[in-house]
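Issue 218. Parser rejects a valid record. Input:
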Amino acid sequence: MVAKHQQCGCTDAGISRRGMLQATSAGMLGAGMVSALPNLAAGRGPTAEKKSVIFIFPTGGISHQDSFDMKPYAPDSVRSEFQAIDTKTPGIQVCEHLPKLAQLSDKWSVVRSIATNSSSHGQACSMMLTGRLELPVGFKAGASTPFDWPSIPATITYAMRGQTALPPAMILPQPSVNEANSVRPGQYAGKLGEKWDAWHVDIAAQCPLGNGACPNCFRFDLPKPGEEPFSHAAESVFNTPFVKLPTGGPGRLGRRLDLLSSIESQRTDLDQINQVQKLDRSRRQAISLLADPLTSRAFDVENADPKLHVRYGKNKFGLSLLMAKQLVESGVRFVQVNLGKNSSWDTHRRNFPNLKDNLFPYLDQSLSALLSDLSESGLLENTLVVLSGEFGRTPKINKNGGRDHWGPCNTALFAGGGVRGGTVVGASDNTASYPVLDKQTPENIAATMFTTLGIPWDAQWVDTDEQTHRIYHAQPIHGLYS
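Output the parser choked on:
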């Protein structure tokens, strides 16, 4: 069945996991599958020479003045309602509602001087998710198009071709979308060409209020008389999951992740199909990937050890970060985790109660669990973890008790991958309005990720018009390592 990409109009062939596992001839694996795993070589698991990245994207824009760059001496119109608390590192303070992360400050660093060149979701998302401040010709703020610059995961998929037996990059648990379910720009391969799109694991259950990949459903405003209660919970954490493969992102590969037993039982049959039918290399690798028990278990987080559920939280934040950790353990080099829909962190109204009750506790639990587990397993040294939204929030608190979009200043958290813990890079002014020291941009964040993955400084990509572009557009954030 050929599905049309709602954002860019391209088409691709989708095939169910069950259908693929039951395939008895090469003809049942379409051309879309061939492009999914081009020119792959053996190799899995991060080593001292092979590092990985987990990019956590709180889509909508986390409030930096209420989290990692608090200004306790700012004017009343600016100062957070939250108290600043000491961390494990002398001189570094964070929000009182991030106590677990506060005790892990020796494992992370913050950059308090990030600036995005826009306070609009569409433009800022494009800059953050592609690592380019310049907007492409034909850019559309409310949609993803073939004219977009390639996303960071797509660029990595292209740059790391042939280096791993698994897809180099994955995105979960859903695309970054707004309240109208419109996909933000900069999330697909764009001008690089659809065959280089990264894998999209679209599994977040739809909450009753439509908040997507949030830990729970919540209203920004108190319910009106006769309306349902303030807080809701989705019936499940993840829906019937789909793995979206190239080309173009929306091609569906895989029906249910609970087919693990079926996968196991058909492993021998798949091996026989490979031998008897003599499938081409890409098709055989695609089959092997789906039949691999290590990769399969990485996705199966809802059936993980109950102790892990308690540790991470059995919600979309917790299980998404657990899945990211397990994918890195299985050999995936880059995992982007979209924590929340656009509306989740876009706290124009009731900023403080929503952060306190609906967002920070879940972020604190899941991120601290991820960092602790990576550290205890020895993976943190070779896994860079980055937390950053597309922009910060306004210094001034608005009449609705919220903070609006603010591109001029933001804070990002970095851990692992050689980053020196307990470090503050850069600084903002006394109202967290503008960087005053060591200004950085999304281009520097992208360069830091690329460098961690070992992508050469002179690496380039070729667009669909056969024009050559460089991958790096800025230096890595050197202060994280010195």
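Fixed in the parser; the record now loads. Residues 1-48, 247-268, 274-285 have pLDDT under 50 and may be disordered.
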